[in-house]
Amino acid sequence: MTVRERPSGPASTGPRGLGDRDIDGMLFIAEMYAVQVDLLAVVLGGTVPRARAAATRWRRLGYAESGRFGPGPSWVWLTRAGLAACGLHYPPISPALSRLAHTRAVATVRLALAARAEYQQAGAFWRSERRLRVRAGSRAGLRDHLPDGEVHWPDSAVVPWAGECWAIEAEVTRKTVSRTTSVMRELLSRTGDYGCAAADTAVPGRPARHARVLYVCSAGARPTVLRARDPLGPLAARIEVRDLPRHAALTVAPNAAGAPRTGAAGTGGERAC
Question: Count of domains in the chain?
Fold first, then answer.
């Protein structure tokens, strides 16, 4: 499976000890902040033991760190050298314990979408929350709500939604209905890219940035999301609600090959990823 997202700058020429598949895996890790090895196996198209071996090799080369943070597979994240090898300028950070469940959920949603035939054939790409945060700069968290990711569909794609940009929200824990409705309105009314001037954020009469918002929810969060959508009136048609993939939880049972199966995120209707 190819899940590579182009870095913002040119990657180093022939990083020491790395092949194309290594770079694919490391780019995915960088954009997701950190990834558990069972999901890394999906990205690399192999088994968990092979993914673990790749992470060990990256660690020996100084490109990655790894560790266990409770039950479930170990986590892998990139060092400053690893980020530089991918042509990225993100600050190196280790996984935030309070965000582990959400981090895993977002990664599974991205993999589920990337597994769809429509996604692959269209050449769609994922723009990560980490990339959006860097683009928004110091204003992130002060003015803008940043989605967990964006999916961009090229204008040339042979799908009904060609040219659209979707906001993706992975809801693991329940928020208040009022807060969720507020986030929905903000995402649906936004006209400018992240990092744009404040005057361009939501300009009446301009096309909306997000043609639709895809909420992918846990069983506990889904009822709140559905209730939050109700007050939106006609805007509610642009909110789609799906279930998180079965392997989105922090503790999962791998399949016989050692890696979870990627669920297939649909492109219409309210069905599971």
Answer: 2
Q: Which domain holds residue 59?
A: 1-95
Q: Are residues 200 and 259 in the same domain?
A: yes
Tokens of 114: 């990337």
From first to last of its 273 residues, the chain has per-residue pLDDT tens of 444 454 444 444 457 789 999 999 999 999 999 999 999 999 999 999 999 999 999 999 999 999 999 878 999 999 999 999 999 999 999 998 999 999 999 999 999 999 999 999 999 999 999 999 998 876 554 457 899 999 999 999 999 999 999 999 999 999 999 999 999 999 999 999 998 888 999 999 999 999 999 999 999 999 999 999 999 999 999 999 999 998 998 875 444 444 555 443 554 433 434
List for the chain the helix, strand, coil content (%; round to 5). 40, 15, 45
User: Which of 27, 62, 95 is the last residue before a domain boundary?
Assistant: 95
User: The pTM is what?
Assistant: 0.86
Is the domain of 173 the same as that of 127? yes
